[in-house]
Amino acid sequence: MDRANAEKIHALISVMFEQANEVLFIVNNTSDADLRKKTQRTMAVVIGELDLEILEPIYKQFPDMRPPDMEEVKS
Asked: What is the pTM of this model?
């Protein structure tokens, strides 16, 4: 992947993470325990997959794009 596309993908996924956080904030403040559980579980899978399958390869190719507080995933 070229750097320009990596930067675009990184930026878009960052926005997705921010929006997922907003969804979790709303759901975590609801009284519906089943909805909280389902949403938390689903978001964990989605965020984990985006991070491991898309962002981690970008960070390996372009290490300077990795956030400074994020450790490399060892596989």
From this structure: 0.85
